[in-house]
Amino acid sequence: QVHLVESGGGLAQPGGSLRLSCAASGSIFSGIDMGWYRQAPGKQRELVAAITSGGRTNYADSVKGRFTISKDNAKNAVYLQMNSLQPEDTAVYYCNAPISRFVRYSWGQGTQVTVSS
Hints:
The chain is an all-beta fold. It is built from no helices and twelve strands.
């Protein structure tokens, strides 16, 4: 059973930055795609950033140019650097491994990001 643990969320002002981290039990990140998802109140969970096993990245249009996903296979960690944060980025953020429209693992507890002045 793989357990995903997200951290690094908090309160940020508009235009501010946060860096999220995702750790997993076991060395699972090196050979699979990983992604960051978010779920805002009253909305469906959405994939905002993904990184392939080969290191290629993709982003949702809403975060392109502001968010950067990266991974460290040696540390078994995935990161999401979020810059120029906007109030609409407020959500609970989760990491997981996307497989088409599904995910490989059970969801972790997520980390809350709140952008407000």
